[in-house]
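Case study B.
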Amino acid sequence: MGKLNSTLRRLLEWVDARFPLSALWRRHFSEYYVPRNLNFWYIFGALALLMLVLQVVTGIFLAMHYKPDASINASGVPVAFASVEVIMRDVPWGWLIRYLHSTGASVFFVVVYLHVFCSLLYGSYRKPRELVWLLGVLIFMCLMAVAFSGYVLSWGQMSYWGAQVIMNLFSTIPVVGPDLAIWLRGDSVVGDATLGRCFAMHVIAVPLVLIGLVMLHVVALRQVGANNPDGVEFRKMKDGNTGIPFHPYYTVKLILGLALFLLPFSAIVFFMPEFGGYFLEYNNFIPADPLHMPEFVAPMWYFSPFYSILRAVTPDFVIVPGLAVTVFFFWVIAISRSSIKFFAALLWLLAMLGFYFIDAGFWGSVAMVGSVLVWGGLPWLDHSPVRSIRYKGFYAKLALAFFVASFLVLGYLGMQPPTCLLTLISQAGTVVYFAFFLLMPVYTRMDKCKTEPERQVA
Amino acid sequence: MCSDNKVVFGRRRLVIATTVAGGVGVIAGAVPFVASMLPSGRAMANTAPVEADIGLLTPGRMMTVEWHGKPVWIVYRTREMLDSLAGLNDRLADPYSKRRQSEFAAPADIRPETRSIRPELLVVIGLCPHLGCSPISVFSKGAASGIDPGWQGGFLCACHGSTFDLAGRVFKNKLASDNLPIPPHVYLSDTRILIGENGKRA
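Model:
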C-alpha cells in the first residue's frame, strides 16, 4: 500500500512538473471557497452541466445512425425521418439513447430556466459578476440554436414547418432579408440543403462554441466567487469563516442532488418520454410534407414564451413600442445637453419612420430577439442597493412576481392557436415582460430595501 | 518591440500595414465558405414549370400542386364565392394588390377584382407571406367557420392567425401584410394549366 502511494505521488509530481494538474484541482475544487449558506436553488448549475454531458454522449451515439438526407426513400419516406425510426426500432437500445437525448433536451431547458431564476432571486448578475452573466446569456442563445437545429433533424412535420417559420424570420429584415433567408436555407424553400446545415450546426458548430462558453462561464465564476442567498460579498470577510471548500462539502451535496434528480428524469425517459406531446410533439411522428401543414403548429414549450412575443406584435400593437420609444426619447431630450438633444430627436424620428414604414412582422421578430438580448442588460438595469430578494423592497418583489407570471402565461399562450382574446392577453404579457427589464432602473431606485446583514445568515 | 522608449513610427506603420493585409486575407479566405452556403446548381435547377390537369376539379373544391417545392393551390370558386369578394374591400389590407409583389411575376392578364385569369379559377402559392406557414381553407360561412360571424369563406393561417379571403387577399391588422402571391401560370387548354411560366401558349 505504502509503495503504491509513493508511486502515485511520484507520478503526480511528474505530471505537475509538466502540467498544472494539482493547481487546477486546488483552484477549482479543494481550495475553491464557496459560501456556506448556498441553498436548493444552487444545484441547477451543476445539473445543467450534467445535462450537457448527457446530450453530448447520447448525441455522439445518435450521430452514428442518423442520416441528414431529405430525399425520399423507396418506401416514400424521407431518409432522415426513416433513419430516426431505424434508431427507435432496429438499433439495439437505440430507443433508450434517443429518448435520453430528446427528454434531455427539454429537461436541460427546465434546469437552465431554474438556474436563471436563482440568479434573479439572489441578484447573481450584479457587479462583479457581469461577465459570468453575459456568458450565461450567450450560452442560452447557443442552447436555443442547438435545440432548434436538433429539432429540425428528425424531419417530421413539426421539424419542417418549424424550420420554415424560423428561417422566414430572417426574411422579415428590410432590404437584405429575402436574400439572407435564401442563403440560410440554401434554397428558396426548406429542403435537403437546410437539413444538411442544421446537422452541421447541431452536431459540431454550436456544441463546440457552447462548450467553450461553458468553460469561460465557470472560469469567470471562479474569478469572482459564487453569490449566495443573502447576496453579501463573502470574500470581503477577513476571518475566513464564511467560505467552505467546494470539495468535499459541496461535491457531496451535489452527488446527492444528482441522484435525486435522476429519479424523476429516469421516470420520464422510461414511462412518458413524449410527456404528453410536450417533449416530443405528436405531429412530428408524421414525415415532413412541404405541401400540407398540420392544422395546428406550436413551438416546443421552451420556445413558446418568445414565440408568443413574436405573435403579439400585430400592426395595431406597434403603437405600444412607438409610445415607449417616444417617452424614452423625451426624457433623454429633457435631461441632456443641446448637442445630444439633436441626435436624440433624429433617432426618435428614425424610429418613428421605421415603425410606420416597416411591416409589423419585422418588429415582431425584433421583439422576439430583443426579449432574449434584453437579459444581457440586467446587471446595468438593476440599481437596487441590495442584491438578494431577501432584502429587496416591495416593488422589486412585485415586479419579479409579475415577470414570472408573464413568462408562464406567454409560454402557455405560445402553444395555443391564436384568437383575438388570446392575442390581447399575450400583448399584455409582452408589455409586462419588457417592463420588468426596462422599468427596472426606476422601480429599483424607488424601492425601500431592508439593510443587508454584515455576513450571510445560514 | 519597444516598451518605454519612444514609439518607432516606421515600425508602427509596418504593423498597421501587416494587420490590414492579414485582415484582407481573412475576409478573402472567408468568401468560399460563405458562398458555399448559397443555393447549389442542383437546387436552382429545381424550378422547372409543372403541368396540372384541372379537368376533375369541381366548383367549391381546390387542389394542390407542387411547384418550386411550394404548394400551389388551384381553387374552383362558385358564383356565390365570387360574389362575396366585392363587399370585402374595406376589411382588407390591400384589396387591389398594389403593394410589392413576390419574387415571382404574376401573369399580366390577371383580373384585379378576382385575382385570376379565369374568374372562377384562383391560382395562388399556399404559403402565408408572414412567415411561410401553409394556411388552411375554411370555406364554411359565418359563425360556423369558428373565425368570425361575418366570415365569407377563405383561408386561415393557424400559426399566427392571419386570414385571407377567397381571392387570397389578407385581412387588415393581421401579421401578414401581403396577399398570397400568384405564381406565373398559363392555361394550355381548357383543362390543362402550366405553373411556373407566363406566356401566350393558349
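The longest strand of chain A covers residues 33-35. The remaining cases will be described in the next quarterly update.
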